Amino acid sequence: MPKLPTLFALVFLLFSATLRADNTLYFVGQFGNKAVIHVNGHQRVIKVGETSREGVTLLSVNANHAIVKYQGKKQTLSFAPSGGKTYKAREHTEVNIWADASGSFQTPGSINGQMVHFLVDTGATTVAMNAEVAERLGIDFRYTGTPARVATASGIAQAHTVVLDSVRVGDIEIKNVRASVLEGSYPREVLLGMSFLSKVELKRKGNLITLRRSGHSAAPPVRENQRIKNMRKWADARQKERAEKARKKAELKKRKAEKNRRCNKLKNDLADMERGGVSWYHLDAEGNRQYYSDQEVEAQKNTLRQTIKKHCR
Predict the structure, then answer these.
(1) What is the pTM of this model?
(2) What domains lie within the chain, and their CATH numbers?
(3) What tens digit of pLDDT does each residue of 251-297 get?
(4) Which of 96, 138, 189, 198 could lock 119 by a disulfide, CB 3.0 to 4.6 Å apart?
């Protein structure tokens, strides 16, 4: 009988440990106002104000921590790129990717250690990105890449073929991955193509894609301080980009306002001249009035009409 309390306490502790393991949350990445959170072993991308299927609501997020509400309690999750996991050799590594509302399979990941957002595309021969993304990632594709032409949904596009040091999705990391960098803004998302997918086992069941790599150790985590540095660098670049767009928009608005002001003055002058009953003149060097003839006034009207037609549409 004396052993019963000890046995009960042991069972209680095991049960409590199980509960804690089942309810563990880890904040592993950030994309603007979205956070990547491991929930009960599943990776979720949650937008501020939204709730995951497990009941995790994201309240706010920055590069250092995410504030969530889960099971009625408000929690602050510190950035933990390793997801609280111990990385050791195992038989296989799996990553689950769920379809979004549009039916697309998107997932956070990294290229050469820097955070990106992938769109799974089995129709893409390689991992593909646009030139702006490549420049943000520090890929000098014009110097190190090989010029190429690739077929896209919009036709043939100019591109450069490069080899990426690493591409990572979840715990799966592939080294030396071939990729295409396309000139212009297409594709808007980074495409996770077959140069990566062909090196893993891919299974789709309904709205779930599972990537599995057998016989490899799980990829070691990127150092936290470097990951935070990369994300802040990306956030700073996006902020500068938004500021530049806002500046250009304000400048364009100012030019349009000035153009409208000038056009309105031209239209008012023409209306006054066509109204008639007024003698038009200009002052000479001595300040005397020099009146225009009817022919000169008509010529001025024609000049105003042509100017308005050309510049004030």
Answers:
(1) 0.48
(2) 22-84 (2.30.30.830), 86-222 (2.40.70.10), 253-311 (no CATH)
(3) 999 988 998 888 888 888 888 878 766 667 777 778 788 877 878 87
(4) 189
